[in-house]
Amino acid sequence: MIEQRPVTTVICHIVLIAGVLLVAFPIWVTFVASSHTGVRMTQIPLPLLPGGHFFENLVDAITKGVGNAREQSVGLMLINSMIMAMMIACGKIVISLLSAFAIVYFKFPFRMTIFWLIFITLMLPVEVRIMPTFEVVANLNMLNSYWGLTIPLIASATATFMFRQSFLTVPDELLEAARIDGAGPMRFFWDILLPISRTNIAALFVILFIYGWNQYLWPLLITTDKDMYTIVMGIKQMLEAAEESPEWHLIMMTTLLAMLPPVVVVVGMQKLFIKGLTETEK
Amino acid sequence: MAKVILENIVKTFGKTEVVHRINACFNNGEFVVIVGPSGCGKSTILRMIAGLEEVSEGNITIGDRIVNNVEPKDRQIAMVFQNYALYPHMTVFNNMAYGLKLRKLSREEIKQRVGEAADLLQLTDFLKRKPRQLSGGQRQRVAMGRALVRKPSVFLFDEPLSNLDAKLRHQMRVELKKLHQRLGTTMIYVTHDQVEAMTLADKIVIINDGHIEQIGSPDEIYHDPASKFVAGFIGSPPMNFFAAKVVGKKMIEFGKGTRMTIENKTLPDKRSLVAGIRPEKIQIFSEKREGRLRLEVELIEKLGAGKLLYSHIGDQPIVVNIPDSSTTDLDQCWAELSPDNIYFFSSESHKRL
Ligand SMILES: Nc1ncnc2c1ncn2[C@@H]1O[C@H](COP(=O)(O)OP(=O)(O)OP(=O)(O)O)[C@@H](O)[C@H]1O
Ligand SMILES: [Mg+2]
């Protein structure tokens, strides 16, 4: 900060506080709604202060489920989401680490062509290639499975690119020292490259986990079996209660639950995350 | 311990040839310093010996086998890099032990070897630290330790001291020399610093633009340079050079009409040549005498021990190194260039005549 006058400080704080309120208010409403009974939520005006049914609703949502015919318990949806997000995040990291390693450290024909091909796929997110991808997944009999949920999303040009950039900053001498010490390519990868990319991996994990967790369109498309529903798409299904009015208190509770794991991941890995984005240990 | 022989080594990067057919033989236990200006190919030569760079042509022999196709780890060499190349995430101990672990040495053996090296290099207190918690000098010693524990037959150093400050550099230089005396292992050391070369080497290899200018002991290189390049490269301040003409049987002329008789030396039968004399070999006197040249002092640089006097003879600049013991009055002085100390070089090939 260049200027430190009181007026500036006050203005800064006002802007920041306004921002926080803007972001926090919907979450507050969600929380309030999840702590009232279903009946209260149909009455106007909607409450702005929490009621006393939070834990009841929590147990209800996790065990019995929500929606039309109590189709699926939120507990199972959480587990599904967790598995999907983990598989996507870990898979993306493993694959992009390996492909970045290959691109940076091995000389093979059409190396740069391949790199640019990967890079170009950045322009093709799931939504663009959704029809052909669906066809492929359907033909491979992967509908309604964890593989079907994750594999089409698992290659990551962004992560490959990030790891490539980070590997390029590793001094050549490090590789040479390892060669003289007798480390082959995979040893070098495992013993040296991986540990020094630790913070980068953590940062990417956070981003990719949230990416995986928030997947909506793809799970919606390929899961018809209720046992495979993920929570983010599940919430949408809950709203399609045909006869009854939506059970807002439970839906909001589910929303709250859906927000939780990303928060846990971010808070838990915050230190590494920031390190990974700011400093390089080389 | 091993001999290293380079036979007709050529290195090309793409179409550019950077090392031109060099031949050299380094004996067992020798401290060899490869020295030359930046970009002349020193590192490339060293890296070829290490196996980090393939030779384009020729053979490298270490010990008694040709190692052209041998992996670096199997060449029984250890290398210290200019930027140390320590593994940033490993402790000092693990940095040194890593190579030994990969060679599947027993735990006790590793502990013992690292312990010994740490003792020798005064690193015992730092074994648990990471490289980034060390000073430059300590990192340098860790890099040295990592080479030491391998017990190689040849040590390779690529400007290992150039990132240190002057004082530390001097100190490490002395330690390195002692280390060599203690171990007696062949060491090949690359530097562009001629002081390091002169002080450390048993044998100096002077490289210029990818070829060897001269190989010899520091004394030979200093007193008997094979070319103008060597004469100008070794010695500080560098040798004074004058374009000169042979004007008589025993007479040369340089500058505008400054003539000098050369008594006890046969002059080469060339019209023009380059004469050189080291600044420390020029004597100055307060009295004018036959054959002495008048010096107009332009600048004096004090070195602490001695001074440097800058002047011109004719239109050619000259530097004279004046020892402290000299009592000559610098306002009125004459230089005497003893013919014994003058070197002649061809003005075309720059080779010594
Ligand atoms: N990988 C490479 N590709 C192409 N040219 C290279 C490569 N490595 C080195 N060179 C060239 O080879 C020549 C010699 O390089 P080298 O690194 O051996 O110089 P050096 O004598 O060690 O110089 P310095 O004292 O600056 O380290 C230089 O002209 C350099 O540009
Ligand atoms: Mg170099």
Notable traits:
heterodimer; A: 282 residues; mainly alpha; 14 helices; 68% helix; B: 353 residues; alpha+beta; 6-stranded mixed sheet; elongated; binds adenosine-5'-triphosphate; binds magnesium ion
Overview of this protein structure:
The complex is a heterodimer of chains A (282) and B (353). The longest helix of chain A is centred in the first third of the chain and has 32 residues, at 74-105. With 282 residues, chain A is mainly α. Chain A contains 14 helices and no strands. The model of chain A has no long low-confidence stretch (mean pLDDT 84). With 353 residues, chain B is of the alpha+beta class. Helix content of chain B is 24%, strand content 33%. Chain B has 8 helices and 21 strands. In chain B, strands 6-7-8-3-9-10 form a 6-stranded mixed β-sheet, with helices on both faces. In chain B, strands 13-12-11-14-21 form a 5-stranded antiparallel β-sheet. Chain B has a 4-stranded antiparallel β-sheet with strand order 2-1-4-5, covered by helices on one side. In chain B, helix 2 (92-102) crosses helix 3 and helix 2 runs parallel beside helix 4. Chain B is elongated. Chain B starts with a strand and ends in a 7-residue tail after the last strand. At the A-B interface, helix 8 and helix 9 of A face strand 6 and helix 2 of B. Magnesium ion binds at residues 42-43, 158 of chain B.
